[in-house]
Amino acid sequence: FLVQTHSLQDLQQPAVSSKVFVQRDYSSGTICRFQTKFPSELESRLDKQQFEETIQTLNNLYAEAEKLGGKSYLEGCLACLTAYTIFLCMETHYEKVLKKIARYIKDQNEKIYAPRGLLLTDPIERGLRVVEVTIFEDRSIGSGR
Amino acid sequence: MKKCEYQQIDPQALPTPTPTPPPHQGNEPGKKTEPKRPKKKWEVFPGKNRFYCDGRIIVARQSGVLPLTLGLILVTSGLFFIFDCPFLVKHLTSCIPVIGGVLFVFVIITLLQTSFTDPGILPRATPDEAADIEKQIDNTGNTSYRPPPRTKEVLINQQVVKLKYCFTCKMFRPPRTSHCSLCDNCVERFDHHCPWVGNCVGKRNYRFFYTFIVSLSFLTAFIFGCVTTHLALRAQGGKGLVFALQESPGSAVELVICFFSVWSILGLSGFHTYLVASNLTTNEDIKGSWSGKSGEDVTNPYSHKNIFINCCSVLCAPMPPSLIDRRGFLPADESAQTGGTDIELPTLATKSEINVCTQGTKGLLESAALPPLLSTSCPQGKPQTAHPCPDSSPTVNSEPSPELSTGCGAHHTASSHGDASPPRHTKTRSKKCKRAALHIPNPAFDAPVSPTSPDTGPGSKARGHKGASFAPLH
Question: What is the pTM of this model?
Answer without folding.
Answer: 0.69
